[in-house]
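How a chain folds remains the central question behind the approach discussed here. In the encoding step, the backbone of a single protein was reduced to a row of integers, each denoting a local shape. We regard such an encoding as a compact summary of how the chain folds. The sequence in question and its structure tokens are set out directly beneath this paragraph:

___
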Amino acid sequence: MLEVDQAVDDGKKDEAVGLLDSMIPKLRGYKLLTAVQYRKHILEGRVDEF
């Protein structure tokens, strides 16, 4: 998840979504829910770079 956060901070939202897409099939439970919600927020533009 740190790599995803770094990609978002660098303005590379497409890369962040790609990283999440590769992680999601391997996750379960709370981590899966968090990853899916974070991906949704990135795609909706609700996550901004700092």
In short: The mean pLDDT is 93. The helical segments are 2-9, 13-23, 29-44. The radius of gyration is 10 Å.
